[in-house]
Amino acid sequence: MPHYDIATRAQALTLKLILQLSNAEIEELTGLSSRTVNSIATKALERGFDPNARPVLILDKHVCDAPRTGRPSKRKVNQDADAAQP
To answer: Shortest CA distance to 18 belongs to which of 50, 43, 48?
Structure first.
């Protein structure tokens, strides 16, 4: 899934689960594919989002990026500065 900012994800979530627009309408309004909209909605529900709650609360944890997996880079900050100097 391409990276979309939190505001765009929250917008898609509102359109999908609160206003109950179709994926085609959401794609037209936001540019997000149907698959991406479904993924955002599914993850938000898994993370505790309740579309029936009033007032509706969309928290960052509902739409934020998942932690990246894999080994972190070994490169240190001071190595970047040393590499830039001739």
So the answer is: 50
**What pLDDT score does 1 carry?**
55
Among 43, 65, 61, 60, which Cα is nearest to 17's?
Answer: 43
Burial 9-25 (b: 16+ CB within 10 A, else e): bbbbbebbbeeebebee
Query: What letter would DSSP give residue 5?
Result: -
Q: Tell me the pTM.
A: 0.76
Write the DSSP string, 38-80. HHHHHHHHHTT--TT-SS----HHHHSPPPPPSPPP---HHHH
Query: How far, in Å, CA of 51 to CA of 17, rounded?
Result: 6
